[in-house]
TrEMBL record:
It is found in: Cell membrane; Membrane. Part of the twin-arginine translocation (Tat) system that transports large folded proteins containing a characteristic twin-arginine motif in their signal peptide across membranes. Together with TatB, TatC is part of a receptor directly interacting with Tat signal peptides. This is Sec-independent protein translocase protein TatC. The gene is tatC. Residues 298-313 have a biased composition (Low complexity). It is a multi-pass membrane protein. Residues 267-324 are annotated as: Disordered. Residues 271-280 have a biased composition (Acidic residues). It comes from Streptomyces thermolineatus.
Amino acid sequence: MLKSARKPQTKDAEGRMPLTEHLRELRSRLFKSVVGIVVVTVATAFFYNEIIETMTSPVLKSVGCDTSFLELAKEADGHCARITMNGLITPFTLALKVSLVGGLVFSSPIWLYQLWGFLAPGLHKHEKKYALSFVAAGFPLFLAGGYLSYNVLPQAAKVLIEFTPVGVNNFLPLDDLLDLVLRMVVVFGLSFELPLLLVLLNFGGVISGSRMLGWWRGMIMGITLFSAIATPSTDPLSMLALAAPIWVLYFAAAGISILNDRRRRRNDPDAGLDDDEASDLDLTPEAVGEMEPVSASPALPSADDGGPDGDSLPARRDGFDDAT
């Protein structure tokens, strides 16, 4: 006995579906994301040496060493670092880690698209617009922070290497150097997302622009302390290189929030009121003007009068006709 073909389910207009369908969709999108990451990771493994040299060459060049990590670094005035690897398994684990990080970064359009495809059906139209706007702004901000760290780190390395005593070789493990570069890129990139988070809270009605601007003393102090902790060197130039752009972005976020609050008040004067606060009532008296005379309504036809076509109207019921 043949089984009947499974009928395709109609898609809900608001994206609602049973729990089992949600789990199936999540499994499908996770599978596609993992396949994309694995494929790109395997492709990235062929460029393992080029990726390492791109990440380490600015630091090595800043301390006067050879820009290629494959050759031993040459000494320069006693202040130079030798790139080393410790252990038999370290080269393999380092290659695996670099390839996996490269696969995650370069396959981000794939798994971000799958994540958006899973979340988008549950969002309203205006929520989708806001989400796309914030993602479109957040990605360039993260890249700007990562690019800034890529240029600040060589200057920080130049200051740090000066603490090496004269005549002493500085052996720098390659995996430690890569971890430092990746950590700096992530920290700088995420710190550039702070203004976007403040704007998101303002659009959600959590923080007003005036209150945000009133925090400027504490925010400048907090950003400065964060920059002093995040930067690996102790020199003030590296700290200011991270703190100054975040200061500018913070004040830009406060300005955008103030403009948004003004727009919200124009569209809705009661937008700034709390849930238990009553709006102001306009009790100013206005002139009514002259009243127009009301014309007398025509008398209702009786049951004996004829209708418009000459037909007789129906008889009254309980003293009322159909017109009444």
